[in-house]
Amino acid sequence: xxxxxxxxxxxLGPKSENYTFFKEMLNFLMDDHAAWRQDFHPDDxxxxxxxxxxxxxxxxxxQKTREALIELAGNLQIKSxxxxxxxxxxxxxxxxxxxxxxGYMLTLLYNPNNCAYEGSPATTALEIEVxxxxxxxxxxDPQKAWGHITSGGTVANYESLWLAxxxxxxxxxxxxVMPGLVADLDEWQLMNLPTGKILDLAERAQCAGIFDExxxxxxxxxxxxxxxxxxxxxxxxxxxxxxKAVDILGIGQENLIFVPVKDNYRMDITALxxxxxxxxxxxxxxxxxxxxxxxxxxxxxxxxxxxxxLRDCYxxxxxxxxLHIDAAYGGYAxxxxxxxxxxxxDYNKVSRQHAGQGILHHDTDWxxxxxxxxxxxxxxxxxxTVDPHxxxxxxxxxxxxxxxxxxxxxxxxxxAAYVFEKTDDNPMLLGSYIMEGxxxxxxxxxxxxxxxxxxxNITGYGRIIGxxxxxxxxxxxxxxxxxxxxxxxxxxxxxxxxxxxxxxVDYAFHELGxxxxxxxxxxxxxxxxxxxxxxxxxxxxxxxxxxxxLTREEYGATPQLFVKKFxxxxxxxxxxxxxxVLRSCILTPYFTNNTTYEEYWQNFxxxxxxxxxxxxxxx
Amino acid sequence: xxxxxxxxxxxLGPKSENYTFFKEMLNFLMDDHAAWRQDFHPDDxxxxxxxxxxxxxxxxxxQKTREALIELAGNLQIKSxxxxxxxxxxxxxxxxxxxxxxGYMLTLLYNPNNCAYEGSPATTALEIEVxxxxxxxxxxDPQKAWGHITSGGTVANYESLWLAxxxxxxxxxxxxVMPGLVADLDEWQLMNLPTGKILDLAERAQCAGIFDExxxxxxxxxxxxxxxxxxxxxxxxxxxxxxKAVDILGIGQENLIFVPVKDNYRMDITALxxxxxxxxxxxxxxxxxxxxxxxxxxxxxxxxxxxxxLRDCYxxxxxxxxLHIDAAYGGYAxxxxxxxxxxxxDYNKVSRQHAGQGILHHDTDWxxxxxxxxxxxxxxxxxxTVDPHxxxxxxxxxxxxxxxxxxxxxxxxxxAAYVFEKTDDNPMLLGSYIMEGxxxxxxxxxxxxxxxxxxxNITGYGRIIGxxxxxxxxxxxxxxxxxxxxxxxxxxxxxxxxxxxxxxVDYAFHELGxxxxxxxxxxxxxxxxxxxxxxxxxxxxxxxxxxxxLTREEYGATPQLFVKKFxxxxxxxxxxxxxxVLRSCILTPYFTNNTTYEEYWQNFxxxxxxxxxxxxxxx
Lengths: 619, 619
Known about the structure:
By secondary structure, chain A is of the alpha/beta class. Chain A is built from 23 helices and 13 strands.
């Protein structure tokens, strides 16, 4: 089999274990870049002379830079989050790949701007390549798909809804400019064409030379006034970027419908169907449905296969919608399902492969058929958000969007790209095909470096993410098996919120015998405050976590099931409508090691004991 | 006086002249960061062992990283643009500040995400500080203003129009939720309240506890359907992000009006007035007017003071609009007008100060009253885009937006910020107040470092940008004074498009006696192709430039004036509607040196001779 990556050789390490290597590379890139400058027209004389470099004001300016850097360094040391350490189990971040960091640092010195090819002859090509790699990872045909880097998942989500919105308005626009093309379709049918069909029609408009006129008649030209493009459906567990998206895009927040989630925090497909039926009944179009692959708060994976099945059923009935997957967090986990030749693995082979290659222990029992089927169904979506700066282990800022059918670019492009029929003037003029303008080529280079060193399958990313899931499951099972913590004469139990779909574990502590949700919330809030920036700089902390509040406003009745497990008295949930939980995104790959894990689990328990004791004494 | 910065000590240099210093700092930051990791819980054992580090698969993985970095380095060397050299006079970029690069590289290792304070306790504060500094640079009261980093000017422009759009819908929303507040205002008056008045009303809604309900009734909640918020007016010279903005925001491209520019490529204020009068006549609101400070193609500075005056006159007549300045390119040039204590200089003192401090030569005669008044009037605008990664000499990606009145944040915020009345849960939760979500804290740190070393007044940025304007004016005057270039028996003249408002110089070559615009366009296109990536990697090029085509479609009849200067025959402009010009953004600070400038001017003329000769022989 192909060489699997050694995960411990990928990161600088919690104790800077790979310092020598990293520094060697850093010096290489600096020297290499400096030589590049010197060798450009070697006959050009230096502009800054040795004599000037010894002058007082020259030295003073250098000293200002030195002092500013030292001040910044001190500031960062005191206040930064030590994500590199397994003691940090908070937000969706951990150490980043040395390859990505070095790629970013080297490219920063060349400072390319991927907005226009002319500003980035080297890195625009890398971004196009990375886009194809991500499309392939998502199961798309890289020859037909399209993908690019964004500044983050939020912007990628905006772009997807921008695509969906403009696309939805194309059929009606065609009726205005080329009525013959859609003569047999009534208003409702025009609003319910599948994405592929709309793009086929748009292509015919292009052949007929009326593409720009069609775009002018679409929402792009006409605006949202007088348009009723329908509703956007997202699960309750959605990221708040969706609420911002419908505002920005002029759709309006009242046209965003939150679909209830089940007790596992996955979208309730029955509820989704009920919503769509209700809309169809009133002849309200569904602009888009968004599924989430790895919710921000719970790491839940929506049952994408069921949504796809639903969409297919509706299409038979003449109802269709754009399907986007917000896999900003979880997207890279698809690498766990691709074998060393990037082929999608059969269900019965996945766990065996993971165990056989030492990616996940045999008894971890992580994979469920639902998660497998959801992952498998991803390429049925029209577009997917997937962030390199989350499970891609890339430094900020690098999100990405991939779309199944690259013809969709011209629904939003400024210059009509006609799918890269490159004209003289715009070879890969990214800024005109995407939402953003100027963008760091260094981010694309960082992702390219990472993908070069860490293959997007089980030999690379699958291994890193597998280790992190292994760690999450160890933590999850330890929480279940944990004995109550004794503090004085009190005992405190801990329960996980739900079985993790990937590597986020939510949990809450509770004093045995206590029936008050107020008290329980206060307990967990107090633990959080002691294990976060709330108690001051965290550099001295033993354990750092994040938290979330699951509220009725956002989640309906779902969190009540969790509350009930603790024997909270009737009425408390109804009254408070919020349960406070601790949230650990286990991105660290180091918990796959038995010794390391055991050490950190003991550390966790001791930290919790200390935190709870302190509450007791301060109360 | 306070210590002025030594510009030559700020950059790595065209020949890596400051290599020793930069490398020393790079090693410092690496060691400092590595120690930070090691010192966090010194008793935690290393996870990666020395033994493992000698294993074959570990070494193989390191080697993969090394090889990928070498491949990337080679790729960058061959294809990147050598902006560091004064031979590069193309796009809006040159060498970047060492302070900024070092700040970025150091902070990248800490990988903060400024979306949420919890992910960036160090760098969120730096971003807030930088926002205040930029607000102050723009002449705003930093205590009342608000600013933050964006991924670029494009996104900053979107955010400004998002603010303007939502704001415009607030008065009507108030009529729905708190009719008493606006009882005496009719529909037209509601659509014509000045920004400050709308924010006062919104504040009263907040006190009355109906702020969220008001937001729900605004376009944020209701969407753009059924709304008529009016037109957006931008000069013809605008950046294409404005065309994208009205699409994205659901305003529609047909509601974007292009105001003609004068022969100096500044917005024609008479034409602007004519447009507004026409709109007022048909009771169409003006959603926003955008002025440009430093157009992308010509570096033109719109007469902001005249637009402000016009707005004030209209307000007397009950007509108002949001005013945004797109100073993405030119914004930092305002530093030329602030004395060493950041006080805005009187007109009669500016040139004297510049000459006295050696920022601009006495006979450069750059500053015009129009540019001065435009700069002075900037703080009268509601918001301003200003990009650190342009005239801030910061690496990509760092744009910024500043707004005059921070109360405006809550018109778009997700969590109502109530202007930083910080609640427990959202201390500076940037992601909920701005358009973007995840964002690199490293970008904020880079800008912070730059501002720390280079003051935002004539002792710092004023000096660098002054040098660059000095260079642009030398180039401009050399073009005017240039003798025709002889190639064989032909002679070629060169003329600049217009007197530069800042530091962009457009110009075109023309064969003496030739009356064909086709021929002239081909000549300049061919020169461009030889002096750009079009002729292959530019590492061997003598001179690199960019180009632009001034078309009738975008600029109306304005470019014809330039065409006429060459004696082009009647009818050619009418037929072609496009003139091809070379465009040099002179950001390099090194042309202030007589010897350097002369050398590069000679180099330019020789490069042009060679380029034109080659055309002759290949034709």
